[in-house]
Structures are given as C-alpha cells and as structure tokens.
Amino acid sequence: MTNTVRERPDWQTWPNLITVVRFLLIPVFIGLVVAHHSGWALVTLVVLGVSDWADGFIARKFDQGSKLGKALDPIADRLAIIAIVLSLVLVGLLPWPSVAIIVLVDAVLALLSGLWFRGDPDLDVTWTGKIRSALLFVGLPLLLFSSTSFAADHDWVRILALVFVWAGTVGHVVAGVQYVRALSAKHRLATRTA
Predict the structure, then answer these.
(1) Distance of CA 9 to the CA centre of its chain
(2) Residues 26-37: pLDDT tens digits?
(3) Residue 175 above 90 pLDDT?
(4) Is the Cβ–Cβ distance between 91 and 70 less than 8 Å?
(5) Which of 37, 106, 177, 179 has a C-alpha 20 to 30 A away from that of 168?
C-alpha cells in the first residue's frame, strides 16, 4: 500500500484568497465614498492596502506563489487604484489629471498585453511598481482622511496627501515605461524564436 500525498491545486493558496477579497472590496469602497461615508471608506481603503502587502508577503514567506496569483495580483492592484482614484475624483477630492495619467498608462499596458500576449504577459512586478502602489496607498487614504471631520481644520493633511498622490502618479508612469520595455523585449524574443 502506497502512501500518496495529495497536492494542493495551484490556485488554492491564502494569497489568492486575499487577492479575491481585495477584488470584492473595490465596489464596497466605491459605494462608501459615493455615499459620503468617509470613515468607513477609509477603513476599507486601509484593508485594501494591507491586503496588497499581505498577499505578497505570505506568498514569499510560505512559498505559496502561484501562476494565478502572479496574474491576478497586478490586475487587482490596477483595478483598485483606478476605482479608488475615480471615486475620489467623482466626489471632488482628487484632481482629474492624476486619473487621466493613471488610466492612460494602464490602457497602453492592457492594449499591448492583449495584442502581444492575449492579456497574460507573465511579467514580474517591478520595485518601481511596488513603490508606486505604496505611495498611492498612503496618499489616497490621507486624501480621504483630509475630508473627514477629524482633519477639517488641517489643510496640511490634504497638501501632504496630494504630494504622495502625485509622487505615486509619477511612479505609475515610470513603472508603465518599465513594463512597456519588458513587454517589447519579451515580444521581440517571442517573434525571433517563433
């Protein structure tokens, strides 16, 4: 009698579950912002930010990385950033040029990924991309916090939030350029070997 160990499917990992929760929290956050529940929206946004860090940490620490997680994590990041930014523009907290820049960069990346790799280029997240996400996930909650009654008399909170948001927006452009270069190099290699 042989003792067989049943392997866990690639998609059944804690990081993937956390990423799915992040997807589910995005519409919750939008609803709270639009309904002007800034306090609860801020809590949801903090959970989104923590979950972004947690899934990567758990994947590395406990060797639970997966191909599905590698594909879903950047999509969840981009969707969260776009949804957060758009909802904050909608209620007048965030200047629209930041949104236009972020959406334009993501549109170019989505177009190239779709044309060259059917939407799945299988690229590693860059450090610039991680720093960009961190800056935005600090700046956007600060911006939301600046609209609460706790920060109503403190203009410096909004100014600091905008510094983080614009630094994150610039980081988004730099990360986008890095991803376009990586996509182009991978595409050239694929066409040469085809």
Answers:
(1) 25
(2) 999 999 999 988
(3) yes
(4) no
(5) 37
